[in-house]
Amino acid sequence: MANRRVRFEEWAPEKYPQRIAQCLEQYRPVIGQQFQKEITTEQFNWPNATRRRSGQLVPAGKRDIVDLGNFLRSQTPGQLVGLKKLQFEWTAAYALAIFLGYYTKGFQKEKARDWVTPALQKQPMQVFFAKNWKKTAQ
């Protein structure tokens, strides 16, 4: 095996926490928009037709998880917590029930509808960081 030399032009590990924070701040609107897109995409299978509070009759099959739009609007714009954590919240009182599923008054289990995992799969943080890491050094 031939000897190869590696030369680090920008070796400054003391700057990594700030660079991580910069990448997270740049990722924030990207993943925030993807969360919104997942909520509004007709992708969640529902076993029966239902009438939404908006009055819309939605047939069984794939649907979005927007009714009156309160849940969609309850998404916070996301915030950087410390230098290494990006946090989004959905403040609608029933957001957790949508995410985990719930039981109706008749004890029927309603399915969980996870909009977070598909968003992270479509806009993976690792790929974003790989594309943007070098830009943060400037």
Q: Can you tell me about this structure?
A:
The protein has 138 residues and is an alpha+beta fold. Helix content is 36%, strand content 14%. The protein has helices spanning 16-40, 70-73, 95-100, 116-122, 125-132; strands spanning 44-46, 50-51, 57-58, 61-63, 79-81, 85-87, 102-103, 109-110. The chain has a two-stranded antiparallel ribbon with strand order 1-4. The protein has a two-stranded antiparallel sheet with strand order 2-3. Helix 1 packs across helix 4 (116-122) and helix 1 (16-40) packs across helix 5. The chain is elongated. The relative contact order is 0.19.
How would you sum up this structure in a few lines?
This protein is of the alpha+beta class. It has helices spanning 16-40, 70-73, 95-100, 116-122, 125-132, and strands at residues 44-46, 50-51, 57-58, 61-63, 79-81, 85-87, 102-103, 109-110.
Q: Can you tell me the overall shape?
A: elongated
Query: What share of the residues does DSSP label as strand, in percent?
Result: 5-15%
Q: Percent range for helical residues?
A: 25-40%
Mean pLDDT: 89
Query: What is the end-to-end distance?
Result: 35 Å
Residue stretches low in confidence (pLDDT < 50, at least 5 long) are none
Strand order of the largest sheet: 1-4
SS class: alpha+beta
Describe the sheet with the most strands.
Answer: 2 strands, antiparallel
